[in-house]
């Protein structure tokens, strides 16, 4: 007779971008955007985020402040709403990749 062990589901909460918190902020020598992240941002996740952003130019514009759970990025004077949406989509991808890497 074989005894099976019941599988226990482990709830894992991923970090995600809260698009509703997008705002214009001072960044360096100009203005930019900032958006909050939701979910557990620990030292390991922060390190994975930073490592991933250095490997793809599209992610290089994002700066993480883990202490506030905020990501900021530069703003161009010629940015259209479509450009901002594209940046947020790139950030979503970066965050998803950091979450995916953290699973392994």
Brief synopsis:
With 104 residues, the protein is α+β, with helices and mostly antiparallel strands. It has helices at 43-53, 81-103; strands at residues 16-27, 30-38, 62-65, 70-74. The mean pLDDT is 86.
Features of this protein?
104 residues; alpha+beta; 2 helices; 33% helix; 29% strand; globular
Mind explaining what this structure looks like?
The protein is an alpha+beta fold. It has one domain. The protein is built from 2 helices and 4 strands; from the N terminus they run ββαββα. The chain has a 4-stranded antiparallel β-sheet with strand order 1-2-4-3. Helix 1 (43-53) packs across helix 2 (81-103). The relative contact order is 0.21. The mean pLDDT is 86.
Oligomer: single chain
Given helix and strand content, the structural type is alpha+beta
Amino-to-carboxy terminus distance = 34 Å
- Please, what is the average pLDDT? 86
Q: Strand-and-helix sequence, N→C?
A: EEHEEH
* Unreliable stretches: none
* Number of domain units: 1
Number of helices: 2
What Rg do the Cα atoms give? 17 Å
Helix content percent band: 25-40%
Task: Using the alpha-carbon principal axes, give the shape.
Answer: globular
Question: What proportion strand?
Answer: 25-35%
How many DSSP-defined strands?
Answer: 4
The largest pleated sheet is described as:
4 strands, antiparallel
Placed side by side, the strands forming the largest sheet appear as 1-2-4-3
């Amino acid at each position: 007779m074989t005894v099976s062990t019941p599988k226990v589901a482990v709830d894992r909460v991923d970090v995600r971008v809260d698009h509703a918190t997008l705002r214009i902020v001072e960044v360096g020598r100009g203005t930019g955007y900032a958006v909050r992240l939701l979910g557990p941002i620990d030292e390991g996740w922060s390190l994975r985020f930073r490592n991933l952003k250095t490997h793809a130019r599209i992610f290089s514009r994002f700066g993480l402040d883990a202490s506030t759970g905020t990501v900021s990025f530069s703003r161009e004077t010629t940015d259209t709403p479509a450009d901002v949406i594209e940046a947020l989509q790139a950030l979503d991808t970066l965050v998803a990749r950091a979450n995916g890497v953290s699973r392994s």
